[in-house]
Amino acid sequence: MPSSTKYLKKGHSSFFGHTPRGTAGIPEVEANGLTYSQICLPVHENLLDVSLELSSTRGNVVDDILHELLQSGDAAQKYMQGSRSMKIDNWILLDNVVQGRGARSSASKNLSKRSKRRMSLKQHRKYGSFDFPQEFHKFEMFKPMHNMWKDYIMQLIKNVGTNQLAQSLLSADLHGAILLVTDSKIISLVGVTGLMVRETAETFGLVTPDNKFRVVPKRPSVFIFRADCWKITLYGDKLISRSFAT
């Protein structure tokens, strides 16, 4: 017949598990190692006398147990004075962790902020930043628009004062301007010249004299265009905030 023994002493607790009888003269723990080891660490006396009242409110059971234990434990005085507070959740998810509503909302806001600052290559392709109908890849087709733009930009320069000129040029409509890329993080774009036919929040779309459509990111590119005797340099970082429909 199997036997089990439980021994409890105030201030000290020991437990012996289910122990089948071994062979004669050989303790079972040595024969098969099937017994539990004795708990030798002392248990605080106050903890042994705690009477717990479980709350019927779902979600508060563990907190109530912890509250009762801390009132009688070593840190009871600090806990009751309010200098130490503890909270234990009802459960812990060890895998397949699902973020709480607040965490998901925070992550969504961070993603939204990143998206506003910069579009990825995948996003550019998704929204068609690199798409432009092949029949419009013709430099000569847009020359009349360039002539209209020259009249527009000269009128703008004439009407604004010297102090407002820089800001006016940053906000000027560049559709029809011939832009030269003097610097870009994409080496192959440096030196590209084209007539600007489409602007998005982060790119310029240029039709080159050899009838190709090139998309140039504004950040961190540098552009130059001419207006009569003026040679104007534009830093793409300063143009990111401009909002134009694709």
From TrEMBL:
Record note on quaternary structure: Component of nuclear RNase P and RNase MRP.
The keyword ATP-binding is annotated on this UniProt entry: no
A cellular component term, taken from the record's GO annotations: nucleolus
Main location: nucleus
Family note: Belongs to the eukaryotic/archaeal RNase P protein component 1 family.
Protein name: Ribonuclease P protein subunit p29
Localization annotation: Nucleus, Nucleolus
GO biological process, one term: rRNA processing
GO molecular function, one term: ribonuclease P RNA binding
Keyword annotations of the record: Nucleus, tRNA processing
Function: Component of ribonuclease P, a ribonucleoprotein complex that generates mature tRNA molecules by cleaving their 5'-ends.
Taxonomy, superkingdom: Eukaryota
InterPro entries according to UniProt: RNase_P/MRP_Rpp29-subunit, RNase_P/MRP_Rpp29_sf, Rof/RNase_P-like, Rpp29/RNP1
The keyword Acetylation appears for this protein: no
